[in-house]
């Protein structure tokens, strides 16, 4: 378990330019730290690893205190058991893949380290790359070697700083599965920083939303993206509803693919994926029409009934959270809210065009 | 005379290069990685021999380490040894004059290493020594090697400070540059030419070797 409570102010010319005040715990599993750039994600990772010293607070892993401002404890980086995988991997260019991983191993003879390194490479399916130098590895291979190296050091918690941002779209989904797989095998908490909602929904067991240095919402991935708790949380997660779904039926003749997301059936534009494929859908909150009546004579392929769960006012726009089996957020004008008498508990119908259901990579 | 000067130059430059490589890398690391008061002052002080006339550097060395020098007098009192008119003095003079090139190269090379590599090394429980020798030094090796070569060449050509500190005693402190000077003023043109050719060939060989070595590393 990772226990974090960090306060840090960045001051420039006498003025506070940024202040971070975040407290959370991370259990076994993958916790996604999601937020726009500049929200403080990397600062949190650095503080946990010991690269940066908070002004106040506490950092502990499995009951071992790494930092405590009151107890004046600040354990140096090398004595913390915290692994990090950076965005650009930072594989040592003068070592082969196997040497890189062996360098991560904390104890043992050179022979034992090497054996452990090869074992880790095999676990991630890249034993064929053992003798190659980093510049001879593809982005995906580098990512796996970096993951193998971090895990070889036997950390108590692993921090991943946007590890897939440099990988092409096709490799991304597979690597994400491997990260999930590595977590299940290692059984340590992973804190996964990203600003890609699709990654968060696919890999996250839970998601923390960070906005301007504060944790504004925490919950299951779909819940935080589609049912923001506040205007601040809504701003942090952006305009898309994110749904994890499965292809259930292909209607090529109609140009439609039917997907299922937690029991909610949706029609999307046709794609050639086999039935059963897991997909991530993005539905912009602006592209959903709210109606008080059940309108059937319409070109929109999706008609969902639901109830208003929450009404969030943010400047001139209003965001509604609608429960239709799954939660969906919808953006409407303040005038529409008044005209339709929209408030919590009201029954509404949502109209969504098939073209508004985007398949995310 | 040629052979004696060649052997002496080789000895003096070898010793000087080892001193420069070790001390220069250590100082370069200190200046690149450690934040302490007077850091830039130390850098300036170490750069001084590069901009001062070598005879002035030699003069200060005598003031500092000569038999009656600031520190030299204690050294003499304790050991009965003094650096003036010895090959060790010549090696010291060459080291001090060539040191700035090494320190500058080493500092720049070490500063250019992404500090996050060192951070990653620490997350694996590695201490400062292991991190330096297995991560920082190999990643900075190009620049450090270039510094060694430059300072080797500078030490090989050292004239002014060596003359001030060690004199010009054939067979004892007369290195090749000094021997060339003497050969020219005494009209021994052939000797001067041979010495010049040997010096040129040695320099070319070293530079060539370094190029080959760095190229081999790059393509490894």
How would you sum up this structure, described in words?
The complex is a heterodimer of chains A (361) and B (220). Chain A has 361 residues and is α+β, with helices and mostly antiparallel strands. Chain A folds into two domains: 2-237, 3-Layer(aba) Sandwich (Rossmann fold); 240-360, RNA polymerase II/Efflux pump adaptor protein, barrel-sandwich hybrid domain (OB fold (Dihydrolipoamide Acetyltransferase, E2P)), CATH 2.40.50. Chain A is built from nine helices and 21 strands. Chain A has helices at residues 41-49, 97-104, 110-123, 139-152, 169-186, 197-203, 221-226, 231-237, 334-340; strands at residues 2-12, 15-26, 29-34, 56-61, 64-68, 73-74, 82-85, 157-161, 189-194, 206-211, 214-219, 240-251, 256-261, 264-269, 278-284, 288-291, 302-314, 317-324, 326-333, 347-352, 358-360. Chain A has a six-stranded mixed β-sheet with strand order 7-8-9-3-10-11, sandwiched between helices. In chain A, strands 2-1-4-5-6 form a five-stranded antiparallel β-sheet, covered by helices on one side. Chain A has a five-stranded antiparallel β-sheet with strand order 14-13-12-15-21. In chain A, helix 3 (110-123) packs across helix 4 (139-152). Chain B has 220 residues and is mostly helical. Chain B has a single domain (2-52, 90-219), classed as MetI-like (MetI-like fold), CATH 1.10.3720.10. Helix content of chain B is 80%, strand content 0%. Chain B has ten helices and no strands. Chain B is globular and about 65 Å long. The model of chain B has no long low-confidence stretch (mean pLDDT 91). The A-B interface holds A 49, 51, 76-80, 82-84, 86, 90, 92-94, 103-106, 133, 150, 153, 155 and B 114, 116-117, 119-127, 134-135, 138-139, 220.
